[in-house]
Structures are given as C-alpha cells and as structure tokens.
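tool=predict chain=A
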Amino acid sequence: MAAPAALQRSVVSPAGRHTASLIFLHGSGDTGQGARAWIKQILNQDMAFQHIKVIYPTAPLRPYTPMKGASSTVWFDRYKISNDCPEHIESIDSMCRRLTDLINDEIKNGIAKNRILIGGFSMGGGMAMHLAYRFHQDLPGVFALSSFLNKDSAVYQALKRNESVLPELFQCHGTADELVLYSWGEETNKMLKSLGVPTSLHTFPNLNHELSRTEIEKLKTWIIKKLPVEVAKTNE
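tool=predict ok
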C-alpha cells in the first residue's frame, strides 16, 4: 500500500538562521492556513521568530462522528465531544504516525529533536499530547490551548509505565469555554502532573473557546524560553 501523502502545511520561515522548529496543530474543522491567519489577525502580524520555523499542518479530511459522520479536517475521530467516553484510538494512532513523519522531516533538515516543540488549539492540543507523551518523550515541550484528554486516556496509561524525564506542558484555558469545559482542561493538567509531567496551567477569565492576544504573547515567551537563540559556533 502506498504511503499517505505528506500533510499540507503553511510555513512561517525564521527571519535568521533556522535552528529550531515549532509545529502548531489547528482545531477541528480548521486548516493550517486558517490557524496561521487567526493568530495573525490577533497579533496583527504572523507569530514569527528570528530562529524558529513555524509549521501549521492541515489535518486530512475524514468522517467525524460528532458531525453525524460528515467529512471534516480533524486530527482524529471522537465518539462524542466529552471527556467521559473512550478515545477513538485507531484514528489517533494513525495520525501520530503521520505527524511523526513531519517531526522526522525537520530532523532530516538538521534540526535536533530537542529543538522541536509541538502543540495546538483544542483538538490540536489533544493530538500534540498523544504524540509527545506516548511516542516522542524526548521533545522539550508541548503546548495545549483550550484542550483536554479523556478520563481514561492512552496518554495516562503510557505515563504510568514511564520513568524518563518528560516534555514540559504549557497549558492555557478560558474559564468561559462552553465547548471544552475549563474543568476538563484542569483535570487533564492535574492528571499529567501526578504522572510526572512538569506542567503549568494559565487561566483566562471570561475567555470562551478561542485564543487571546495575552495568551499568544505568553505562549511566545514560553517558546523562546524552551528554544532559545543558539549562539553561532565560530571555527577558531
């Protein structure tokens, strides 16, 4: 069987020498281009860095059960939008393989794995947590904005068997979120912390299921902390 085509992506190139990469996964029904444009609208400019390439991949179309099986650009299927039901693990694992290819592309381009961050908004953040904490525990960090994991998540099962140092989690959530409840995000944070993940949870009062400028600025500060500019080595 032919390998699936590489994921479509929108890329913001670094202004200077490329020494690190960031993968941002959009929410359900969006696209990489759409997520990039949304952030650009909030900041009045692209989320761009001197040394970090920002990659916004697009999820392939697939039937999505919460939309009565209609096709949508989603990273995986859900039985329903709830934290209290089983995960659709087959579609999650299939996408983990596709996104691993994206990580490997960056490594082939000469970027060290400890210089790659992954995260996203809503479903994108959930996808990033599966990818990092189950398959890529040597990444330096994960970010999850308005995201959650199901109560019996495969992520929790994997971490119960783990003894290595884990990627740091930067999490943000609005208290007024009516789609992904704040309590779901908070519970995810507590569970991951109890399993050895270094976590932070930034709470945004009155923020619904959306991004805010303050939140993206905080995220950018964290990104620079995790992926600082590398001083060019001189050949003496």
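Residues 114 and 139 are 5 Å apart (CA to CA). The beta strands are 9-12, 20-25, 52-57, 61-64, 70-73, 116-121, 141-145, 168-174, 199-204.
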